[in-house]
Amino acid sequence: MSDRGREEEGALKFEIEKLAGLRELGLETCCWLELFLVLCGLAAGLRSPGKAFSYKMIEDELALFDKSINEFWNKFKSTLSDTSCQMMGLRDTYKDSIKALTEKLSVKLKEEERMVEMFLEYQNQICRRNKLIQEKKDNLLRLIAEIKDKNEKLEVLTANIQDLKEEYARKKETISAANKANEEKLKRLQKSADLYKDRLGLEIRKIYGDKLQFIFTNIDPKHPENPFMFSLHLNEAREYEVSDSAPHLECLAEFQEKVRKTNNFSAFLANVRKAFTAMVYN
Amino acid sequence: MAAFRDMEEVSQGLLSLLGANRAEAQQREVTLTACFTQLTRELEELKETEASLERQEREVDEDTTVTIPSAVYVAQLYRQISKIEWDYECEPGMVKGIHHGPSVAQPVQLGSTQLSKKFISDYLWNLVDTDW
């Protein structure tokens, strides 16, 4: 065997051993690897003279090897293709899963959005309700304060009214008593004045201009009711001043002077009456 | 969500409670207002009573300060003029009293039923001194 031939053999052997090391192939390496080794051995045997070797045996072995190789190749292809199919299948499954997940997630996201909206809505409502409650509370407090105020005013008013009632009751009594006393007094005074008036036949009246009017009756025997009168007042000098006598008395002026001098009003009146009486008899 | 529902229930409860309180307060207010009105009316009546009492008081005052003194003055004047004091307790139909003359006091007794008025007047005036 040439050096070159030996090199090729060595390289081949190396390749075969490498392949044998590839467990992933999972191939039945036994038969054709061994076949190769056998072939290599046979080839070595061919090169070495003296070994009885059949060219037919080699051909058969090669055909067998070829067949094995083909079988291996087919198996390899189909395995690959299976793997490839599995991969595709897995990929499709993966895609479906992803799609389903995406849909689910999308639904969840929408739900979450709705929840957030609802939450904000509720927050708003609560805020509004709180304001409403506060308003109502304020109104109520104000109302209660008004009521309290009215209550107080009511109490004050009631007390005032009670006090006034009592005061007026007292006043009424006082006035009533005073009135009664006055009435009695006036009654007595009136009675007294009436007696004088009737019995003396003299009425004394207050008239306008701060004057007193003296009216005598029971003068004229024929007409006792006929009045004989004159007026009297105190002038600025606090002197008696007579006037308006009816019927007219001449001596009235004289009497006026006398009474101014003596201040004897009693005698004055008695003399006036006497003069009136004398007038009738004349 | 349940928490939201709870909160809503609570706030409804609060509102209705406030509503009830308010209704009660308003009811009390109506009652109070009625009392208030009635008392105001009583006060008005009292004011009228006060005015009436003031009127009566004025009348009594007038009596006390004017009418009575006037009457007293007149009575005193008669007394001063005639110098006669009547016996008010004597039996009716009698003219009875005392005449206070310048030196003596003289009783007066007349039966008015049998005597004319003129006679009585003349008699009484005759008792009065005409000397200045």
TrEMBL record, chain A:
<keyword id="KW-0498">Mitosis</keyword>
<dbReference type="Pfam" id="PF08234">
    <property type="entry name" value="Spindle_Spc25"/>
</dbReference>
<dbReference type="GO" id="GO:0005634">
    <property type="term" value="C:nucleus"/>
</dbReference>
<dbReference type="GO" id="GO:0031262">
    <property type="term" value="C:Ndc80 complex"/>
</dbReference>
<keyword id="KW-0131">Cell cycle</keyword>
<keyword id="KW-0995">Kinetochore</keyword>
<dbReference type="GO" id="GO:0051301">
    <property type="term" value="P:cell division"/>
</dbReference>
<dbReference type="GO" id="GO:0007059">
    <property type="term" value="P:chromosome segregation"/>
</dbReference>
<keyword id="KW-0137">Centromere</keyword>
<comment type="function">
    <text>Acts as a component of the essential kinetochore-associated NDC80 complex, which is required for chromosome segregation and spindle checkpoint activity. Required for kinetochore integrity and the organization of stable microtubule binding sites in the outer plate of the kinetochore. The NDC80 complex synergistically enhances the affinity of the SKA1 complex for microtubules and may allow the NDC80 complex to track depolymerizing microtubules.</text>
</comment>
<keyword id="KW-0132">Cell division</keyword>
<keyword id="KW-0539">Nucleus</keyword>
<feature type="coiled-coil region">
    <location>
        <begin position="130"/>
        <end position="199"/>
    </location>
</feature>
<dbReference type="InterPro" id="IPR013255">
    <property type="entry name" value="Spc25_C"/>
</dbReference>
<dbReference type="InterPro" id="IPR045143">
    <property type="entry name" value="Spc25"/>
</dbReference>
<comment type="similarity">
    <text>Belongs to the SPC25 family.</text>
</comment>
<feature type="domain" description="Chromosome segregation protein Spc25 C-terminal">
    <location>
        <begin position="208"/>
        <end position="276"/>
    </location>
</feature>
<comment type="subunit">
    <text>Component of the NDC80 complex.</text>
</comment>
<keyword id="KW-0175">Coiled coil</keyword>
<protein>
    <recommendedName>
        <fullName>Kinetochore protein SPC25</fullName>
    </recommendedName>
</protein>
<keyword id="KW-0158">Chromosome</keyword>
UniProtKB/TrEMBL annotation, chain B:
<dbReference type="GO" id="GO:0051301">
    <property type="term" value="P:cell division"/>
</dbReference>
<protein>
    <recommendedName>
        <fullName>Kinetochore protein Spc24</fullName>
    </recommendedName>
</protein>
<comment type="similarity">
    <text>Belongs to the SPC24 family.</text>
</comment>
<feature type="coiled-coil region">
    <location>
        <begin position="36"/>
        <end position="66"/>
    </location>
</feature>
<comment type="function">
    <text>Acts as a component of the essential kinetochore-associated NDC80 complex, which is required for chromosome segregation and spindle checkpoint activity. Required for kinetochore integrity and the organization of stable microtubule binding sites in the outer plate of the kinetochore. The NDC80 complex synergistically enhances the affinity of the SKA1 complex for microtubules and may allow the NDC80 complex to track depolymerizing microtubules.</text>
</comment>
<keyword id="KW-0995">Kinetochore</keyword>
<keyword id="KW-0539">Nucleus</keyword>
<dbReference type="GO" id="GO:0007059">
    <property type="term" value="P:chromosome segregation"/>
</dbReference>
<keyword id="KW-0132">Cell division</keyword>
<comment type="subunit">
    <text>Component of the NDC80 complex, which consists of NDC80/HEC1, CDCA1, SPBC24 and SPBC25. The NDC80 complex is formed by two subcomplexes composed of NDC80/HEC1-CDCA1 and SPBC24-SPBC25. Each subcomplex is formed by parallel interactions through the coiled-coil domains of individual subunits. Formation of a tetrameric complex is mediated by interactions between the C-terminal regions of both subunits of the NDC80/HEC1-CDCA1 subcomplex and the N-terminal regions of both subunits of the SPBC24-SPBC25 complex.</text>
</comment>
<dbReference type="GO" id="GO:0031262">
    <property type="term" value="C:Ndc80 complex"/>
</dbReference>
<keyword id="KW-0498">Mitosis</keyword>
<keyword id="KW-0175">Coiled coil</keyword>
<keyword id="KW-0137">Centromere</keyword>
<dbReference type="Pfam" id="PF08286">
    <property type="entry name" value="Spc24"/>
</dbReference>
<dbReference type="InterPro" id="IPR013252">
    <property type="entry name" value="Ndc80_Spc24"/>
</dbReference>
<keyword id="KW-0158">Chromosome</keyword>
<dbReference type="GO" id="GO:0005634">
    <property type="term" value="C:nucleus"/>
</dbReference>
<dbReference type="GO" id="GO:0008017">
    <property type="term" value="F:microtubule binding"/>
</dbReference>
<keyword id="KW-0131">Cell cycle</keyword>
